[in-house]
Amino acid sequence: MTPHIKNYVRGFGLAKVIIIVRPSEKNMTKEKKEKKTKRHSSSPAFVKTSSSKSLERAKNKKSSKKKETVKRATVKKTKKAVFKKKDKKFAVIKTGGKQYKVREGEEVLIEKIEGKEGKIISFKDVLLVTSGEKVKIGNPIVGDSKVEAEILSQDKGPKVIIFKMKPKKRYRRKQGHRQRITRIKIKKIS
Predict the structure, then answer these.
(1) pTM flag (> 0.85)
(2) Which of 34, 182, 164 is nearest to 119 (CA)?
(3) What is the 3-state secondary structure (H, E, C) of the chain?
């Protein structure tokens, strides 16, 4: 290794600095790399002795882990298939500028709709309806279908804090907000 000498201006004078550059592994020749690996492999800190029995045990453990992962994967696939069977009839409705996937008997939180508790409302903006394998897709809405729901309650959503601040100007404004929401229960998809 040859040191490289560079001149640096420091303060008012000129200072000489010696920089030692070590060759990187990319620039090394194959012979030097082999020497380096041999040196590390022969040292007692890196050598691990093991009998043939322990090697066989390690191989058996690896093969048993592979078998277990295959069994778990098949179980997961069956769970997904069961979930799809439960998900027979659903619809996608549009209300309050948002789209919701709904099923019969399900409770949904939507944007506020005028009406008292117990009132039955119908959504005519139905974008998609499925029942088993039959799928009706609207263009943009399905004309002959509607979703009926009952209003359970008129609530407020979680609190959101709006905080405005301009640094170094003593400008701070804090404001809270709770969005009005309606809890509905889907009665019928037709």
Answers:
(1) no
(2) 182
(3) CCCEEEEEEECCEEEEEEECCCCCCCCCCHHHHHHHHHHHHHCCCCCCCCCHHHHHHHHHHHHHHHHHHHHHHHHHHHHHHHHHHHCCEEEEEEECCEEEEEECCCEEEEECCCCCCCCEEEECCEEEEEECCEEEECCCCCCCCCEEEEEEEEEEEEEEEEEEEECCCCEEEEEEEEEEEEEEEEEEEC
101-130 pLDDT, tens per residue?
999 999 999 999 999 999 999 999 999 999
By residue count, the chain amounts to 190
Peptide bond into 44 cis (omega under 30): no
List pLDDT tens digits, range 68-91. 544 444 444 444 444 455 557 999
Strands 89-95 and 98-103: antiparallel
**Residue keyed to tokens 């420091």:** 10
Return the structure tokens found at 137: 């897709």
Number of other residues whose CB lies within 10 A of the CB of residue 157? 13
Q: How many CA atoms lie within 13 A of 174 on its CB side?
A: 2
Task: Tell me the C-alpha distance between 93 and 49, whole Å.
Answer: 67
